[in-house]
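Take a careful look at the protein record below. Let me know whether the structure tokens fit the sequence:
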Amino acid sequence: MNLRRILAGGTATIFATTALVACSSSDSEDGEGPIRIGTTDASKSAWTVFEEQAEARDIDLEVVNFGDYSTPNQALSQDELDVNLFQHLKFLAEYNVGSDDDLTPVGASEIVPLALFWKDKDSLDGIEGESIALPNDPSNQGRAINVLVQAGLITLKTPGLITPTPADIDEEASKVSIIPVDAAQTTVAYGEGTPAIINNSFLDRAGIDPNTAVFEDDPESEEAEPYINVFVTKAEDAEDPRVAELVELWHSEEVQNAVATDSAGTSVPVERNAAELQEILDRLEEAERNA
């Protein structure tokens, strides 16, 4: 058994590429060498447990950790990885359309609901007329607006938009207004008493208990489907049985317990087959091209 971790993409893409080329080999391509999986979260306990479980099953695994979100897909496309696990379907759709690529989802991992927090409140009672802070980056902003749609607080001019913008909000028909801010500033707004939609990654840093949310999106809803996190390969490697084994391993009790610990119990395991995930991706890519 041979487990290895490689650091890539810490400060420069050139460094990441050089490090990865050094670990590439024809052995991995023909299934004889280690299976190389890329992530941006190797420091989380779930990945440690994942590696331990791989070792117990005699899976030759090489984890490559990246310091940014753009390089893992590039590395996969250039055959420097066999699979990656760091992104949701919407991010993958944006990458494929922007890069004219066809990276393919082959298994799901989990979804982390996006939630609305209101200091010292435990429900939506009294929120009508309030202004709500939400992340202003395109991906999270659209999802955050849809959280408010699901909560019955925002009405869109055109229902069912995957990534609505502030311009798509019917202000007269809505019960609240929004304040788009940098994602890191949503916790500041919360601390000042403003209701805020806060990304899960900022909660721990701000000492906010994720279980105090007054509302969160439904991970089973169609609106949440773009945010399912997925295992991704090149299209021609989608049937690699080693990748299927990794997907199965991720859903083992040991790994899922660690995922729950990392997310403070907010993550929701998702088991969707490759065909279902591809159908969602196709829909997202079409919307991205038409945007």
User: Anything to note?
Assistant: The longest helix spans residues 274-290. Confidence is low (pLDDT under 50) at residues 10-26.
